[in-house]
Amino acid sequence: MKDFVFSYPTKVYFGVGAAKGALETELDKVGKNVMLAYGGGSVKKSGIYDELMEVLHKKGKTVYEFSGIMSNPTYAKVQEGAAIAKNNAVDFILAVGGGSVIDCCKVVAAQVKTEEDIWKLEFVDRKLPTDALPMGAVVTVSGTGSEMNSGAVITNEELKLKVGMLGAYNTFAVLDPSYTLTVPFKQVISGAFDTLSHCMETYFGSPLESFISDEINEAVIKNTIKNIRATIADPQDIVPRSELMWTSAMAENGILKIGKVTDFQAHQIEHQLGAYTDCNHGQGLAVIHPVLYRHLYTSAPAKFARFATEVWGVDSNGKTEEQLAAEGVERLADFIKEIGLPTTFREMGITDNSCFKAVADSCNITAGCCKQLTREEILDILNECY
Prior knowledge:
The chain is an alpha/beta fold. The chain contains 15 helices and eight strands.
């Protein structure tokens, strides 16, 4: 285990009906002007918008709306939100939605507090924002765990880059599993796979030797798998949805990453593919992971073998580490098919692979959990996913 310092700033309100009590408490701590941020019309159709507005008005807040945040938020949208906040002297941002809304607002919150262009600040000057507007999150789609950290994924359409940025932490987050009943079921499952991906990208990070963080991670992975299956069996059952909402948070609240250097190469490939195709994040990860791991497992057979036995229950009797490792990867691939997620890019509607070389050439390459990929190998992976 590597040395670490752990501190966690976000207060979590978890449970059915948690939003009202959370806002009743937290809005007393912020100024009068609140920016309410959300995506499309689902928060209004579901009644969540009215529920939150009732409390905001009860608390005497002046509300400025920032709507239309897309599923892959753009840098232009960040600047639109920052302009609304600056022009109306916003004191607090309340982000309502999934990871895209929350990610966008985290960067908005940081942009408001600096006169510099935050893209230039982070990627040209190589500096991090030091101040941000306070914000909170009401999660309606779990999976990204965005409410639990200061990272955000933003697409710069002009530069054709979809990358991670740093912004604000949420001072509080509301996790009401009943809100996930208001979103399309396919998004619930793809979001849950994003949770699984976060866990695996941490689990296969460095060091490869397993210790307490990895053992906790194995429990979170198994719980996620179990409750994806339970949610598919009964989509209206709030119990497995509650579990999935909390495993999403656990994957990104730092607990699993203590003492680890994470990998996230699958995410880097999917992110950059998203810059060219606007693909669904969870579905893209589902396609990429088994293909990527077929390229990696021979470089870390012991860890992939442990993944097979501890997560998937593969019988180790009479098998080499490499055989176990390979079987674990195929169990993952079989699970993806079982839960109805796509296994190729074409199944996702990506019917043109002409962008793949550009994606590979511009993709961020991580140190790798056990093997650093070349751009040629990333292109091979993309083509194998097609």
